[in-house]
Design brief:
heterodimer; A: mainly alpha; 1 helix; about 80% helix; rod-shaped; B: mainly alpha; 18 helices
């Protein structure tokens, strides 16, 4: 993929695309992490 | 009085011993060590201010910021973040169950920032100019982030002092003055949070000026965000750690409210720290992605970066989460210490280890023993003053005359 980066446009497209994918993964993960963290609290309630 | 007690060293040890332990004049090894640190520190202080930086430090034109900036200032500011996180949790977010932790956190933050200012005095020199507020009145460097950091630290130290004043005022029995100081709490908390947000992030932003000197894995346009987010985790961990240490040494000084509120506080802070570290881990990964630095990971610096990221961010995040979920206070306390080590490592990486990374090893900066000794001297002074205050003033317990008036 790095071989295809020739211009700033290429670089930005590449890094921004990866960042957007990462943020989507993060949003899913944070929900899972929150559920893991508060699972016992909900059981007690 | 015996001959031994008449010697100056024994006399000083007796004074130190009184500072270190209540009503105990015994010549303990800890007191002896304290005296040695204080004597060596005083000699080195005289040497620094009479002979200049070159006499005590290994600083150079290629590495003008050393141990006092990397450790005393950057770690000190991050670890003193417990003050604004705890007071914000209690007074801004309404978590009154953490009320008893506010005073120890404010005191730690106040003393931490005082050490930061003193370490800056050692580094910058010319204390006469600082006393006259020379950089703020005569020669403002308004285009410098360091000016913004300096101004914020000046204002925040004042805020912390005002937040701290109800403690000595209660101790002195000055009810009217104490009541005025307490009424300022909310305003001071808001002011403190604003100032902390500004200078915690600006400390990271300082390094934006050196993209060619700082290794690309640590350099990022998001440095300001990294520093601010990690300071919250550092502050939460520091409150847990400081509470644990105080419990061991000062249990008899702690009031009923503090002792009852401490275990839920540890669990609550662990949950918050886990969430903050989770967010910090993700923004660090975004930092690598945004700069497309993945190819640098399988290098020696890359492996060191992964040790920091996985070992000192992801691991304590997981440990805090497991500890909080299982009500495992021991695991949480271990995670707090691990996080503190991680934050110190991060700050040292940025200011020293990954800084000037392209220079050959013999030209790299390594702090002299005198710089390290002076850092230990400053931390020792902080511990002594902390000890002096908490054994005399109502920090961990409520003053009986003001029990009903606490907010």
């Amino acid at each position: 993929m790095d071989d295809m980066i020739h211009t700033l446009q290429d670089f930005m497209l590449h890094t921004e695309s990866n960042t957007y994918i990462l943020m989507a993964v993060y949003l899913v993960c944070v929900v899972g992490f929150w559920m893991f963290l508060t699972h016992k609290d909900e059981e007690q309630d | 009085m015996s001959e031994q007690k008449n010697s100056p060293a024994q006399g000083m040890a007796g004074v130190a011993s009184r500072f270190m332990k209540d009503d105990n004049d015994k010549f303990s090894p800890l007191a002896t060590l304290t005296v040695i640190i204080l004597v060596v520190g005083t000699i080195l202080t005289i040497l620094r201010f009479t002979q200049g930086l070159g006499a005590v430090t290994n600083l150079s034109d290629t590495h003008p910021w050393g141990m006092w900036i990397g450790f005393d200032l950057m770690c000190g500011v991050a670890l003193a973040a417990g003050g604004y996180t705890t007071s914000a949790a209690c007074y801004l977010f309404g978590m009154k169950k953490y009320h008893s932790a506010v005073r120890p956190a404010i005191l730690t933050a106040f003393l931490g920032y005082a050490v930061v200012v003193v370490s800056l005095l050692y580094d910058v020199g010319r204390p006469d100019r600082l006393i006259l507020a020379y950089p703020f009145i005569v020669q403002q460097g308004t285009t410098s982030l360091l000016f913004e950091v300096g101004l914020c630290v000046l204002l925040y130290l004042t805020v912390l002092f005002l937040e701290f004043t109800p403690i000595p005022l209660e101790w002195l029995g000055l009810r009217k003055a104490r009541n005025i100081a307490v009424k300022l709490t909310l305003v001071l908390t808001i002011f403190g949070v604003v100032l902390s947000t500004l200078h915690q992030s600006s400390l990271g932003a300082l390094f934006l000026i050196a993209p060619s000197k700082l290794h690309p894995l640590w350099y990022s346009p998001y440095l300001a965000v990294f520093f601010f987010v990690s300071s919250i985790a550092a502050g939460l961990s520091m409150v847990i750690f400081e509470g644990t240490l105080s419990h061991k040494a000062l249990h008899h000084r702690m009031g009923k409210e503090y002792l009852e509120e401490h275990p839920p506080l540890v669990l609550g802070y662990a949950k918050a720290a886990a969430l903050v570290l989770f967010g910090y881990f993700m923004v660090k990964v975004v930092g690598i992605t945004a700069d497309n630095n993945w190819h640098l990971l399988p290098t020696p610096y890359g492996i060191w970066f992964l040790v920091e990221l996985l070992g000192f961010v992801a691991l304590p995040c997981l440990l805090f989460a497991v500890g909080s979920r299982n009500n495992d206070v021991g695991l949480i306390k271990f995670s707090a210490v691990w996080t503190i080590i991680g934050i110190v490592l991060n700050r040292l990486n940025i200011s020293m280890i990954a800084f000037n990374y392209h220079l050959p090893l013999e030209e790299r900066y390594v702090p002299s023993w005198m710089e390290i000794a002076l850092s230990i001297f400053m931390v020792t002074c902080l511990i002594l003053v902390f000890r002096f205050i908490v054994t005399r003033m109502p920090v961990f317990d409520e003053h009986p005359d003001f029990r009903e008036t606490h907010e």
